[in-house]
Amino acid sequence: MTKQAFGLVVIACLFVVLTGIPSAVKGEDLTVRGKYLVEHVAMCGDCHTPHLPNGQPDRARWLQGAPGGFKPIHPMPSAAAAPPIAGLPTLSEAQVIKFLKTGLGPDGKPPLPPMPPYRLSHRDAQAVAAYLKSLKGKN
Q1: For the chain, what is the total number of helices (H) and then of strands (E)?
Q2: How far is CA 84 from CA 26, 43, 49, 63, in A?
Q3: pTM for the complete prediction?
Q4: 25-61 burial, b if ≥16 CB within 10 A, otherwise e?
């Protein structure tokens, strides 16, 4: 291999490493990022997972949906309950990505409180959707 060809290979490898192409291509990396975002940033389990008597999330029913853990001060237009999101039982990955990017549901409306209208980047929304899709839904 000539010095010139070797230099091009080194530059190509640096480009791939620095731009993060491998993590965007491998679904496993998206799922790992999605797990981080769901569990440590958005804290989805706080509302979408039933809690044990000691207050800890019930990992056996992780993201399987849960009744609201609070009584609203003002009347709410619907019951305060968080739907199941493990396995994406009610939305497609594309719908979840759009929802997480725009803060609008499939009906074009923002989510009801206490759900925040997220505005994630496309990559982060893909990662969250990939992680949720990877989980087993209700039996």
Answers
A1: 6, 2
A2: 26, 14, 8, 6
A3: 0.73
A4: eeeeebbebbbebbeeebebbebbbbbeeeeebeeeb
* Burial category of 130 from C-beta neighbours within 10 Å (exposed 0-12, middle 13-18, buried 19 and up): buried
pLDDT in tens, 89-123: 999 999 999 999 999 999 999 988 788 889 999 99
Residue listed under structure tokens 């803060």: 103
Question: Most distant CA pair in the chain: distance in Å?
Answer: 74
Query: Which DSSP string do the residues of 20-54 spell out, in sequence order?
Result: THHHHH-HHHHHHHHHHIIIIIS-THHHHS-B-TT
Retrieve residue 38's tokens.
């769901």
Nearest to 134 by CA among 82, 96, 79, 102: 96
**In 3-state terms, what secondary structure has residue 51?**
strand
Instruction: State the amino acid at position 52 in one-letter form.
Output: L
